[in-house]
Amino acid sequence: MKRIGIIGAGRFGMSLAETLANGGTEVVLIDRNRPAMQSASEFATALQGDATQPHVLAEAGFAECDVVVVAIGSNIEASMMATANCKELGVPRVVSKATSELHGKILRRIGADSVVYPDRDSAHRLARAIANHDVVDFLEVAEGYSIAEIDVPDAARGKTLAEADLRKKTGLTVLCIRRGDDSGHGRTVIIPQPSDKLENEDKLVVFGETKQIDALS
Can you say whether the dihedral through the CA atoms of 214, 191, 153, 135 is positive or negative? Predict the structure, then answer.
């Protein structure tokens, strides 16, 4: 199970934490606001503290997180310090929230692996992306139904589409197969046929109920 750290319990951070926790992910949330942490303790390990202090994050266990999301809003200095602290702790992946393009550029320069912007990124979509590492891309096309690009399931590798029978076993329809070309620098798109064999490095673009995609990934 992934351990996700979240710094900042504003609307974005709280929504992200609750979405991840409801999906079964272990969440550690830290913020200076005591009432917010009391509320978040219902679904996450919620700690009151100052994330601009490296020792606070270390003591809270953020160094053991697989991903940390710096969800601090308008306090740009605090978001930068928290991002730098996480990278100093050796967190494998730090995702930082930015309020402007300039803010985002600065966050990248000080080590953020990814930068998100509230006007363009949904907390729910981000939660799905970091909790389900097999989902490479995701698009909700209707209530409860989505298109996603996923890795080939272990049980289907080396089998033809007919043998894998993913539609019967998972309820998902394979729309296309994305496969690396011979140069290794691009991917070709294959319209699937029952006789096509699924290779280990293939990516499948599938359509189906969102809960079925979540269950598979």
Answer: negative
Q: Are 69 and 95 in contact (CB under 8 A)?
A: yes
Among 116, 115, 65, smallest CA distance to 90 is for 65
d(C-alpha 189, C-alpha 152), whole Å: 15
- DSSP, collapsed to helix, strand or coil, labels residue 123 as helix
Phi and psi dihedrals of 182, rounded to 5? -65, -25
pLDDT tens, the chain, 217 aa long: 689 999 999 988 998 999 899 888 999 999 999 999 999 999 999 999 999 999 999 999 999 999 999 999 789 999 999 999 999 999 999 999 998 889 999 999 999 999 988 766 666 666 766 776 556 666 766 677 888 888 999 999 999 999 999 999 999 999 899 888 665 556 677 888 999 999 998 999 898 888 888 887 6
| Contact of 36 with 14, CB cutoff 8 Å | yes
Q: Are 199 and 179 contacting, i.e. CB atoms less than 8 angstroms apart?
A: yes
* Cα-Cα-Cα-Cα dihedral sign, residues 75, 67, 61, 123: positive
